[in-house]
Write the structure tokens for this entry.
Amino acid sequence: MELTSMIAQAAAAMDYDLVLTPETGDSRIERLIHGRRVDGVIVLDVCREDDSVDRLRATRIPLVAMGRPADSDAVSLVDIDYAHIARSCVQHLFERGHREILFMNKSQRVLRLGFGPARDALGGFRKAVEQLGIQGWASCCDHTDQAGERWVAGALADRPGATGIVTINEGALPGIYRGLAAAGRSVPGDVSIVGAASARWASAPSPQLTAADLPVERQAQEVVTMLVERLRDPAAPVRQLVLAPSLVLRGSSGPAPARHTARPGREGRGGGTGSGTSLPAG
């Protein structure tokens, strides 16, 4: 809700009200659009194979997307380069001596739907470990503390030699820390954690998370500004902004420890979340 709240604030500053609806295809938004009771639409959490943007464009209502649909050339949008973030996280760990790295993605359902951050981050992670010639494993996790703890337990059982974790899963982040503590692994002494999160989430755990701080306030401001531009001039050219935040170094990452004695992993365990299959990332 952090992003939604900031969008509402940015809209209010430009003298617009924000009407929230959970789905782009429900009857409420259809009534709002066809009844011309809204001036424009901001579509959040756009998926790659999501036809909601095309359906909304067909109504000719001004819109801006938060995320990139597969066919995005004609859509004004604001997005974050999660592939860049994942590569930066792996590079950061590699430079500190880590050679066995785990990637906690978002849930299997979100990945299957084609949610851009989940798909792009996975691709960036795989590319990075392949280019660097190191070992990496990726799996999905539901967005809860408890799922995060189960994911850590399963991942360490499969890959006991892993010394680094990359995550874009804010909801499971507290569970990562608790799972590592339960396994007797210190952060960052035994395992370093790096990821992507808003500054509020990144600063909450102890030690604080080394992360690409998601520019939530700028996203909100930019998406509202783009929509207002289109409201004032429907013929305005399509404008697209892809943000690539840099890592902010905090206390959760450090040099790799002496190597753990690793035993062979068991493929397909599923990361302990019950929501996905462990994926070789190289």
Summary: Residues 2-80+215-243 form a domain with the Rossmann fold fold (CATH 3.40.50.2300). Residues 62 and 233 are 10 Å apart (CA to CA). Residues 260-282 have pLDDT under 50 and may be disordered.
